[in-house]
Protein 1
Amino acid sequence: MAISIQRGKNWDLRGKKTLITGAGSGIGRATALAAARAGAELYLTDINETGLKETVDAAGSSVALSSAFDVSDFEAVCAFASDVHGGVDSLDVVMNIAGISAWGTIENLQHRHWKSMIDVNLMGPIHVMENFVPPMVRAGRGGRIVNVSSAAGLIPLPWHAAYSASKYGLRGASEVLRYDLKRHGIGVSLVVPGGVKTGLVNTLEIAGVDRDDPRVQKLQHRFEERAVEPETVADAILVGIQKNHYLVYSSNDIRFGYWMARKFAPPYEFVLQKANDQFSRLLKK
């Protein structure tokens, strides 16, 4: 039997068991604190133990469990999932926010750049979804999945080949799950921020480029001028969860840039859902 997804203003985070990765800084921390204010019960992770503790302290009694580990480590994710499911049968909301970035042209990118992008930005969310989404399906209460991709997961930005490989991959998985999970009442949101004022701005590695070059610093300054605060993205995420939006934008420039590609979206989405429904009839009861 299909489960109807709660829509509109009736679906909120109050009392919802909510996992957030990358909660130690940036978008992850801003979203964790926003979710805490909204009444969520938080399960938080980050690779940075110090940053995670700061977020936990700020979120206070809203945090049910926290653990510092690398989402690209499958065994670590499995161990955390075991701890979570030792106390609750399933979560209600899973947010994959943890991510890293590296840019460069293909002649400057090294294997480690490609591998780290895929390991953290794509396999990390997959590890999390493998462990937490099937219990949500079995619990039968519906829920929400939030995957943070990027404008670089929609638009082929210069020097973003390795980064986009991971973010387009996450977008592809999310779009399939959007239709696969609808019958279980689980909504999927793909967050596609442009520039955001996080620590990634300063730690970002650009292969083959001298970060001290005045020209590079000028470009970085222009990027920072257009970038939005992490809290802006967090607010957009919470609205996306509430309204069950698939694409969640945090700035209108990205929305406009992708508009042409989505011009004929309604018939496209209709056909995809009908195809998925047809395949679903083949599942064993």
Note: Strands lie at 17-20, 41-46, 63-68, 93-96, 102-103, 143-148, 186-191, 205-206, 247-248.
Protein 2
Amino acid sequence: MDAAKTLALFVITALAEIIGCYLPYLWLKKGASVWLLLPAAISLALFAWLLTLHPAAAGRVYAAYGGIYVCVAMLWLWLVDAIRPSSWDIAGMSLCLAGMLVIMLAPGVTD
């Protein structure tokens, strides 16, 4: 799978996970409807399925996905929660992305 497709799949996977966790948060902390648990469960099932679409070894995929997840979560903080990430947040995102690139682009790694 090429890098652009992998990145897009990671971003979609992260959104599915975040939505699956955010909806119960709205129910538990913000008094939203209990019915939000249904789309949350569907979103988390989608998240798990999306992780299976990667051809690399599962552990490597999960580790690399974590870097993208952190970045998408920070974008969610900014776009949905209306909290602008700090310079520390951006530094942390950069470190996570660097780690993800080391894992996914290491030469000679076989699955």
Note: The first helix runs from residue 3 to 30.
Protein 3
Amino acid sequence: MSVFTRSRTSAFLGGIALVGASALVLAGCSGGGTGGSDEPTESAGPVDELSLKIGTALPQTGNLAFLGPPEEAGVAYAVSQINDATADTGLDIDVVYGDSGDTDNKAYETEIPRLLGEDVSAIIGAASSGVSLQFIDQVTGAGVIQFSPANTSDAFTTYDDNGLYFRTAPSDVLQGEVLGNLIAEDGNQTLGMIVLNDSYGTGLAKYVTEAFEEAGGEVVAAPTYNTGDTSFDAQISEVLAADPDAIALITFEEVKTILPSLFGQFPADKLYFVDGNLANFGDEFPAGSLTGAKGTFPGLSLDTITDFTDALQTFNTDEGNEPLTEFTYAAESYDATILLALAALAAGSTDPAAISEKLIEVSGGSGDGEKCESYADCAAIIVGGGTADYDGISGPITFDEVGDPTEASIGIYQFKDDNTYEAYEG
């Protein structure tokens, strides 16, 4: 594996680009952040009884609904492991599940008040950055933690969030850099993009453009569309008229409507996907429609965490749910839940402010803690009076002072003839 730095000289190996967020302008203290201190703090030690309640605002409906099942499964799997250890830790956890929807159906307008009314300490969600921005003030203003497993907009790095916003997904500064360089390294000189007009889409497009142009390429068209749009003829025509070497689709589920108009008019192996739309389409399109297309999403390559995804699938089906067809952001959702429980345990409290004070510490961002890779092992360290440093399924995490992970992996994938994807071996 190669470390991907701002020099843009890295190679892509085994479907993963490792990115150090500390090399980017992500660690500033201005704007939002967490309430955590950089100074080591003593752990609270064992507690007699601690009942933590959290909510989820993940996409059960809307243009990211395909991400809802793996994210909710990740939360549920973590909860099962946390509660299995209650006898040893004194902490149990309960979840109230809710729907974030999207900015068109606005499910969050009723779901967020409902979740807050349940007296939760934290809400995990939303998946969409644009949706999270619709209710972050409502959640953090109520003194509740908002913890997203999938928000990637750079807007959150400096957001005034009362120290109560965290995320296990890295900023789009990183994914944009990886994707822009991947497109350039594939030999493309010109690039067209179709872009969702929200904080996620335009932000990611900005960083793809910067990376691609710095590598010597030119973006020749980048039309946008709005959530809820159903026709994309104008955007497709504009991009095709510019005759680009490659097209990046920076969209959510709308990609299913866009793709059929590109088939036969543009080579599949010159199409590039992002985390908002990279899916195993299978027989939704004719076999071979996407052969050679590539895409990225944050997190370790799924090929490297098969023990986790296999166990998650077994857990999910044992709970009576339909088998998962996607695992995108499942690990990040799992890790978010584990981190909230460990922070509550370390604080000896379910108060959101107290938990937020400990989230940086249990992630390894402060406190010089002992490395551990499971809830049970980390909890044992805390109960024993030590400081835990959790390295998760999705990566080391290690929050900085604004609640962003300081290092991340960006998975690179390529579609096969059956319209499903696998790790790209470049």
Note: The two ends are 11 Å apart (CA to CA).
